[in-house]
Amino acid sequence: FISWRNNLNNFSPIDGMIIANEFFDVIPTERFEFSNEKFSKLFITTLSNQLKYKWVEDNTLISLFKQSCNNHEINLPNKYRSEINENYNDWIKKIGSSLIKGIVILIDYGYHAREYYLDDRNRGTLVCVNNHSSNFDPLNNIGNQDISAFVNFSHISNLASEYNLKTLGYLSQASLLINLGILDLYNK
């Protein structure tokens, strides 16, 4: 039988399947900058009643970044900006403790760490959408746009192994849809 859950709290672990469709890309994430061999975290502050960005050095991001790379050697160039999600751990832990045995299928936009942290992606993956138009400024159209960041599947895979979940593989959402025959449906 199918049981829809709005949260993973307060129910007995299941023997079955958990499907999370476009869930991880909307979890609040941290933006970071790697500059002069140091990590800084982005905060939003006010100055003269205007919202402004403020970068604050944060050494806790070093270990989180290493974890997000999942044993891939990634050397960030100076002034590199991206996202790193401190909230993945809590959700993977909840998912892991929700299963006696079974399978978890995550469907989302994202990359493995080497692709996620490409030199060309030096402004991150955060995207905002308002009326089917995208921009990259969360301070634009506040309250009237969707904000999401692509998922780092290497990071999720690394965390999954900590909670006895085995990653069998991953592929892009586009590849999944093509493999499921979306082009055939589109061409009809």
Task: Briefly characterize the structure.
By secondary structure, the chain is α+β, with helices and mostly antiparallel strands.
Largest beta sheet: what is the strand line-up? 4-3-2-5
Largest sheet: 4 strands, antiparallel
Proportion of helical residues: 10-25%
SSE order, one letter for each helix or strand: EEEEHEHEEHEEEEHHH
Shape: globular
Strand content: 25-35%
- Poorly predicted runs of 5 or more residues: none
C-alpha Rg (nearest Å): 18 Å
Write down how many β-strands occur, each being a DSSP E stretch of 2 or more residues. Answer: 11
Average pLDDT: 91
- H/I helix tally: 6
Q: What structural class do helix, strand and pairing data support?
A: alpha+beta
Ends distance:
32 Å
Describe the structure.
With 188 residues, the chain is an alpha+beta fold. The protein has helices spanning 61-69, 88-97, 113-116, 153-162, 173-179, 182-186; strands at residues 14-21, 30-35, 38-47, 50-57, 80-84, 99-107, 110-111, 127-130, 133-135, 146-148, 151-152. It is built from six helices and eleven strands. Strand 8 and strand 9 (133-135) form a beta hairpin.
Keyword list:
single chain, 188 residues, alpha+beta, 6 helices, 24% helix
